[in-house]
Amino acid sequence: MNHKKRLHKPRPVSILISLIAIVCLTLMHGCYKPPLEQPYRINELNNLILQANKAFEKGQSERAESLYHEALKKSRIIQDDNATVIVLISLSRLYTSTGQIEEAKKLIDSATELSNRAFLPEDTLEELNFEKARIGFLLNENVEQLLRKLSFSNFTNIRIKSLNLIARLKIKQHEYEEAEKLLNQALIINQKTNRIEEANSLRLLGHVYLDKDNALAGQYFLKALEIDKELAIPEKIALDMETLGIFYKNMGEKQKAKEYFIRALEIWKGLGKKEFEIKAVKEIESL
After folding, report:
1. By CB neighbour count within 10 A (0-12 exposed, 13-18 middle, 19+ buried), where does 248 fall?
2. Whether 70 contacts 90, CB under 8 Å
């Protein structure tokens, strides 16, 4: 006797439930939109970096450092490699301004390591290379070849900064004519597009002329101070005041020198820079 297997027909209710489930899943998949968290975080990150930069310019080092670290944390959370490298470069500049050169070098080494495995825009890579050269210069490393290469960068800002830094190197090596040529080249390229670097070029020209034309050297120092006052960057203004104080001290004009050192001291006190305060006080007492 043949026993045929009985096939159970699916019940209409089961079919209906399955269809409803499929339709629901399809609708959910088609209509679902992820929360707009990422763009918000990117804007938040950019704002943090902007705030940190402003704090740094105002000489508020502790606030700038805190904001940079917060930005660094956020950039790593959202895996924004470009922002991470930019923040590391900014922190490096902050640390060198407070004399923490070895700490700055560690940050740049970290940024370099990241740049080797991430795709970064050309301008960020050039900024990173310049910062490597700047740290190397401060550590007395041979960075001239890298700086010469960067002086032909596609980015005007990098070219100007590189020329200024090569000039600093040449002044250090007492090659004043070469330094003067580089600084004039930087000023021609600049055309007032980067006022901070324009002031740097003029200040360095003042050092170039110290031994051959004191009057012209003084004019360059005063022009640099004028620009830094326009930009309202306290640390730069204080450093200009100190430069002029040393200039007039060496010229034998003690009263003028004292006035500039006193004004520099006022700024350092306002910024809470104890190390620079002590230095200014010593200069005043020596007059």
Report:
1. buried
2. no
Give the CA radius of gyration of the chain. Answer: 29
Find the angle CA(136)-CA(226)-CA(212) to the nearest 5 degrees. 65
Determine the length of the chain.
287
Q: Reduced to 3 states, what is the DSSP secondary structure of residue 7?
A: coil
HSE (side-chain half, CA atoms, 13 Å) at 225? 18
What is d(CA 221, CA 210) in angstroms, rounded to the nearest whole number?
Answer: 10
Higher-pLDDT residue of 10 and 253 is: 253
- Short-list 61, 65, 96, CA closest to 274: 61
pTM over 0.85: no
Per-residue pLDDT of 98-111, as tens digits, reads: 889 999 999 999 99
- Assign residue 252 a region (left: φ > 0; alpha: ψ between -120 and 50; beta: otherwise): left
What is the token pair recorded at 54? 């402003």
Amino acid, res. 21: A
CA dist 74 and 68 (Å) reads: 10
Is 283 within 8 Å of 259 (Cβ atoms)?
Answer: no
DSSP 8-state secondary structure symbol assigned to residue 253: -
